[in-house]
Request: fold
Amino acid sequence: MTLFWSCVFGGPESSDEVIPFLENVLRDKNVPRERMLAVAEHYYHFGGRSPIKQRDLAASVVVAPIGFISAHVEVVYDLDTEAKQLCEDLQLPMVLAGTLGTHPRFVRMIRELIEERMSEEPVRIALGALAPSHDTCSTDCCPASQRPAQPGRA
Reply:
């Protein structure tokens, strides 16, 4: 059994669209151009199309909306409508994994974070080997991104 993992959110339809697509996705991100060009090569391998659109890669698909807490209209339309239709067109079985939504453990974590922030003597909980992160950024921690000027805009 081969497992193919792909993080997909739309994508180019041809080789000519790859670089503009990646430039848009990576706008305001600190990604070197060389890295973007290396990623572009993966798209070129599939003729400039998103790998999810290549039927011969998988026998079935599990779609996990990892960037969303709840199944709001964007998730419902993009995944329940567009991705589902694409998979049906490709005769590719698809299962949509649920979002965190109101799962009791997720709700408990949110409650604990709120209580922690309201406490005058908070106990910071962290997972793994690293301690909890800082609460206040230094002035040079999160520099504002600089967007390139858009043609025709002031």
